[in-house]
């Protein structure tokens, strides 16, 4: 793999390293070396030997607007590695906080600048003679704004690599303990920490739908329009991907609020697709009436609440088959559940958890909103407090949790221990909604 460092190595590889002087005073010592590089240039460097001295540091993972990584190749006369390749890093000055240091080191060592930092990871380092907190930042949407501002005699060049090249490098070059490159790459994958580019992601989802429909010779989609953000975003995505003429939006009131129907119409009007209404209130009431005739019938609030999405799903598939025959092309039923709901099992088994295609299942609530902003989903819908429209409570009231905390747990971010415990417990006890046990002979 060509990462354009051969010329740098030839020029700045150390040809000779000569100790000029050395002294030790208490816990602090200093060695002075004369370094001769391959190109003939010479430099005097001082190596400070520290003991019982604390100092904090930062490591920066710069990602460009094109989603490439910026690394630095550096001549390291104070270490065993003559040329090291690493992420930019630096010591925190007494008058700086970690973020300020990260931005300064990024600019000085690479010439890149950003206003967007994510604190990714930190660890406490104690090697016996020095102690430090090492904080790691992702710097995304980095732009080249100037030349490097290096210290006198400093030999550093920048390297731009793709994610694939970075993974290859992690097993080749990064051996020093300071950058921990292999570990950090693993953290990026494990936490799935990425910069969410809503415009780019919206285009990718639309392409995904187009490709899937073309490959499988599909024609249309039926989906419930609840008046909430999830169904509004899904409707917008399908209208863009397969055309509004191929989208059938359905409102299925069942002892529902009138505002939901009003908001559903806003979405249909925005994207120009057909919106039909099928009132399930009478069907629901009849079912409840018949159920009460069972000898050992016991009223159950959960059974009553979950009956509504199960009736709705039956209606969706009825309509999908009807329109498939009517228009002589295959209609799918689209799901609208997002990643946070999926993670804690906040959906009805055999109800809104059933679908033929789901384009939101890998997006958190916040990411759904960002895609909705790109699609220009009506604000009354996009920023409405999420609710199931069934129980009279908001989603978060029913869950006893916030979607923000659920997203943090999904992404491996810090959250209150008890809250995290509750979220993981819900995730665990709802696995039966995803995995059906099958006996194998």
Write the layout of secondary structure elements.
Layout: H1 6-12, E1 14-25, E2 28-37, E3 42-49, E4 53-54, E5 57-64, E6 69-75, E7 83-86, E8 89-91, H2 98-110, E9 112-113, E10 117-126, E11 130-144, E12 156-161, H3 163-169, H4 181-191, H5 198-215, E13 220-224, H6 229-242, E14 247-251, H7 258-271, E15 274-277, H8 281-291, H9 301-327, E16 331-335, H10 339-344, E17 357-358, H11 365-375, H12 379-382, H13 395-399, H14 403-410, H15 417-429
Parallel strand pairs: 4-11, 5-11, 13-14, 13-16, 14-15, 16-17
Antiparallel strand pairs: 1-2, 2-3, 5-8, 6-7, 6-12, 9-11, 10-11
Polypeptide structure, described:
- Helix content is 38%, strand content 24%.
- With 441 residues, the protein is of the alpha/beta class.
- The protein folds into 2 domains: 52-191, Alpha-Beta Complex (Nucleoside Triphosphate Pyrophosphohydrolase); 198-433, Rossmann fold, CATH 3.40.50.620.
- The strands form 4 sheets. Strands 4, 5, 8, 9, 10 and 11 form a 6-stranded mixed β-sheet that branches. It has a 5-stranded parallel β-sheet with strand order 15-14-13-16-17, with helices on both faces. A 3-stranded antiparallel β-sheet has the order 1-2-3, with no helix packed on it.
- Helix 6 (229-242) links the parallel strand 13 (220-224) and strand 14 (247-251).
- Helix 5 (198-215) crosses helix 11 (365-375).
- It is elongated and about 100 Å long.
- The two termini are 50 Å apart.
